[in-house]
């Protein structure tokens, strides 16, 4: 059984990844500082509480376990916060990642899978977005992701550290078994906020602008189920473990849903009224973000299993209904 170190494995995507790997005969080993993650989300494999900037701890983990690859989910992810506190984002997302990569090189661990983001593209000039779309991120968050991608290209060249960068569109949904889900504090993402409104935890959903150049005036996004993301990571891992070249891949469903469409689907699935009102635009929101994922389908053999928004919302609703206070329930 191969050991895979999952940094940020107590977070939303990392925790689902650990579970998915454990069902496929890999041993997930989780490292998380629990700043954003939850101890209760770590249900598979050994757990180490600590930071990726703690090189002593990393050395110990790499010495105690033969690690075949590292999957990196330990990043701050709020665009708005990154504008107000760029230092926090560059420190955590770039400097600490660099520290992790340096220990990997020292310990001769040669495979790395990186959670990147469609935020590396910035304002789209073409839809759907392919991997060679211009990369002009418009937030410090997006820039931290792009800088790490560039560091990884340089590390491949100089040290032979092979890597795959997975550029997620809108990760959503929850573990189909209902064991894991999305629990951010504060929550800023659309689907969990709409479902929290359905649970009566907030009076209404704010729709950030309805004057965008889209069919109903609200922003269009490409939502991808968390388990489809996990499967793409497994395929990326297997690509690296069979010594095929790395690179960057978009992960989305190539289909966009507007904010109003998302709210409608949530009303249908929950059977609740879900009040919503239009407010000011949120700054930095492009009108439409839709992925082309042809490259991932072609090179990785990836095919989403849960592409429809109904299933994405259903799995998320099961989690939120059963865990109204998240992992603190
Ligand atoms: N959004 C909204 N109200 C909210 C949260 C989000 O209208 O309370 C919109 C947001 O402007 C964007 C879409 O929903 O167009 C998805 O936002 P989210 O924060 O979930 O993901 P992002 O696309 O920013 O990664």
The ordered string of helix (H) and strand (E) elements is: EHEEHEHHEHEEHEEEHEEHEEHH
Flag low-confidence runs.
none
CATH class type of the largest domain: Alpha Beta
- What spatial order of strands do you see in the largest sheet? 3-2-1-4-5-6-11
> Whole-number average pLDDT?
97
Shape summary: globular
CATH topology (fold) name of the largest domain? Rossmann fold
Note the gap between the termini.
34 Å
Can you list the ligands bound to this structure? uridine-5'-diphosphate
Q: Portion of residues in helices?
A: 25-40%
The tally of domains stands at 2
Based on the coordinates given, report the CATH architecture of the largest domain. Answer: 3-Layer(aba) Sandwich
Structural class: alpha/beta
Main sheet makeup: 7 strands, parallel
Strand content: 15-25%
What is the overall number of helices?
A: 10
* Strands, count: 14
**Computed CA radius of gyration, to the nearest angstrom:** 19 Å
Q: Would you identify the CATH H-level superfamily of the largest domain? A: NAD(P)-binding Rossmann-like Domain
């Amino acid at each position: 059984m191969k050991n895979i170190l999952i940094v940020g494995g107590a977070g939303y995507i990392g925790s689902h990844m650990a579970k998915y790997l454990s069902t496929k005969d890999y041993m997930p080993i989780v490292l998380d500082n629990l700043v954003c993650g939850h101890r209760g989300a770590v249900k598979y494999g050994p757990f180490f509480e600590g930071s990726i900037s703690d090189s002593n701890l990393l050395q110990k983990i790499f010495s105690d376990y033969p690690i075949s690859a590292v999957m990196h989910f330990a990043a701050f992810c709020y665009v708005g916060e990154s504008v107000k506190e760029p230092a926090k984002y560059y420190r955590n997302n770039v400097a600490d990642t660099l520290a992790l990569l340096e220990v990997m090189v020292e310990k001769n661990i040669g495979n790395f899978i990186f959670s990147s983001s469609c935020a590396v593209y910035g304002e789209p000039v073409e839809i759907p977005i392919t991997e060679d779309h211009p990369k002009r991120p418009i937030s410090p968050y997006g820039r931290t992701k792009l800088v790490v991608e560039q560091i990884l290209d340089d590390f491949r060249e100089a040290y032979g550290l092979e890597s795959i960068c997975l550029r997620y569109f809108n990760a959503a949904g929850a573990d189909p078994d209902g064991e894991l889900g999305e629990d951010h504090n504060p929550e800023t993402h659309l689907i969990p906020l709409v479902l929290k409104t359905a649970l009566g935890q907030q009076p209404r959903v704010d729709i950030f602008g309805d004057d965008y150049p889209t069919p109903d005036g609200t922003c269009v996004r490409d939502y991808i189920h968390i388990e489809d993301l996990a499967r793409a990571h497994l395929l990326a891992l297997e690509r690296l473990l069979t010594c095929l070249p790395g690179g960057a891949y978009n992960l989305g469903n190539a289909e966009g849903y507007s904010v109003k469409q998302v709210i409608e689907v949530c009303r249908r699935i929950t059977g609740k009224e879900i009040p919503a009102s239009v407010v000011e635009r949120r700054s930095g929101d492009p009108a439409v973000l839709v992925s082309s994922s042809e490259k991932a389908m072609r090179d990785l053999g990836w095919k989403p299993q849960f592409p429809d928004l109904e299933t994405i919302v259903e799995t998320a609703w099961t989690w939120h209904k059963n865990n109204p206070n998240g992992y603190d329930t």
